[in-house]
Amino acid sequence: MGVILEAWVFATILCGFLGILWKQNLIMKVLAMDVMSTGVIAYYVVSAARGGVFTPIFLPQRQVAYADPVPQAVILTAIVIGLSIQALMLVGVMKLSRYHPTLDVRDIEMKNSP
């Protein structure tokens, strides 16, 4: 089951990457970056998932294997940073759309080329 799930996660990353390459609309590029970021986070979650570990709440009477909280904190940080980067990119697209009535990359490049 893990191999199939990893294949779906890699397919999600690939779809996001191909969306960045092939789409010409800036909003679609931002959404494709979000899909790729979600796939990368999902890959870390799938690779770190293990059975038989418990929540890292220390109880003296319970001597079991605890889950490491550091990867969880790193993933939460990655989610927050990804959200802020996506918001910043969307603000950039909004600023760019004030000067160019289109969001097509080819048209913007043609208007700004010497």
TrEMBL record:
InterPro entries xrefs: CPA3_antiporter_subunitC, NUOK/Mnh_C1-like
User: What family is this protein classified in?
Assistant: Belongs to the CPA3 antiporters (TC 2.A.63) subunit C family.
Superkingdom in the source lineage: Bacteria
**Keyword Nuclease among record annotations:** no
Q: Which UniProt keywords apply?
A: Cell membrane, Membrane, Transmembrane, Transmembrane helix
Q: What is this protein called?
A: Putative monovalent cation/H+ antiporter subunit C
Highest lineage ranks of the organism? Bacteria, Bacillati, Cyanobacteriota, Cyanophyceae, Gloeomargaritales
- State the NCBIfam families in the record: PRK07375.1-5
Membrane-crossing residue ranges in chain numbering: 6-23, 35-53, 73-93
Q: Where in the cell is it found?
A: Cell membrane
Per the UniProt record, the source organism is: Gloeomargarita lithophora Alchichica-D10
Pfam families for this protein: Oxidored_q2 (PF00420)
Q: Which GO terms describe its cellular component?
A: plasma membrane
Q: Does the keyword Membrane apply?
A: yes
Identify its membrane topology class.
Multi-pass membrane protein
